[in-house]
């Protein structure tokens, strides 16, 4: 996020305010589960039941950490060293909040490809870019608008994130490109292609596949 675009910055802060209650609600539900399994573990369970309690507590803890990262998405930070990212998992983790951000006027669809290779990227920048796409799509107020995300393996040991935006009036392809996407491309070896103006408004974001 650059200070040269205060309107975009304002929209994203407002978006954070819109999803914060939903995130807080999810965290509260997870904490209730942790408390319940902790009480069970403090009783006299057998080994199998104790292992189940510990597994559920661990899963809930990981989910709470993921939700905390969503709330930290737009906090100022230096780029991290790239890590191994499951692009399908990152989008699925955000899907509920992406739908909330695009609002009722804009449809949202996610089409994951099975057996997608892991990508080499910064997961926080990816979250920031994805949430930014939803915020920007909603701000355009397109009649019959729709934001679609699709993942695919790509040639040259790459992973493709295809973002398509439709509606009336036809959105400018540049509406899909944010500072965060540019940072992914420049810092982590990604590549970006925009569809021609006369075709569907689409962004092809190629990420390098991680070495298995």
Question: SS-based structural class?
Answer: alpha+beta
This entry's quaternary arrangement is single chain
**Strand fraction:** 15-25%
Give the % helix. 40-55%
Return the CATH topology of the largest domain.
Heat Shock Protein 90
Poorly predicted runs of 5 or more residues: none
Strand order of the largest sheet: 2-4-5-7-6
Q: Provide the number of structural domains.
A: 2
Biggest β-sheet description: 5 strands, mixed
Number of strands: 7
CATH C-level name of the largest domain: Alpha Beta
For the record, what is the CATH homologous superfamily label of the largest domain?
Answer: Histidine kinase-like ATPase, C-terminal domain
**So what's the overall shape?**
globular
The radius of gyration computed from the alpha-carbon positions, rounded to a whole number of angstroms, is 19 Å
One letter per element, helices H and strands E, the order comes to HHEHEEHEEHEE
Provide a count of the helices: 5
Mean pLDDT: 82
Q: Give the termini separation.
A: 32 Å
Return the CATH architecture of the largest domain.
2-Layer Sandwich
């Amino acid at each position: 996020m650059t200070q040269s675009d205060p309107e975009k910055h304002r929209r994203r802060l407002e978006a954070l305010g819109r999803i914060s209650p939903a995130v807080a609600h999810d965290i509260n539900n997870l904490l209730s589960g942790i408390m319940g399994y902790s009480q069970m573990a403090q009783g006299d369970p057998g080994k199998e039941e104790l292992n189940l309690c510990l597994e559920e507590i661990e899963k809930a803890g990981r989910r709470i950490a993921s939700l905390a990262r969503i709330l930290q998405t737009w906090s100022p930070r230096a780029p991290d060293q790239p890590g191994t990212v499951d692009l399908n998992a990152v989008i699925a983790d955000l899907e509920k909040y992406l739908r909330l951000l695009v609002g009722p006027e804009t449809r949202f669809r996610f089409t994951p490809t099975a057996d997608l290779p892991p990508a080499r990227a910064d997961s926080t920048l990816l979250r920031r870019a994805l949430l930014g796409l939803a915020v920007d799509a909603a701000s355009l107020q397109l009649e019959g608008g729709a934001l679609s995300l699709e993942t695919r393996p790509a040639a040259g040991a790459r992973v493709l994130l295809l973002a398509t935006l439709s509606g009336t009036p036809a959105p400018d392809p540049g509406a899909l490109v944010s500072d965060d996407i540019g940072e992914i491309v420049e810092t982590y070896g990604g590549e970006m292609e925009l569809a021609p103006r006369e075709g569907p408004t689409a962004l092809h974001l190629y990420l390098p596949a991680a070495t298995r």
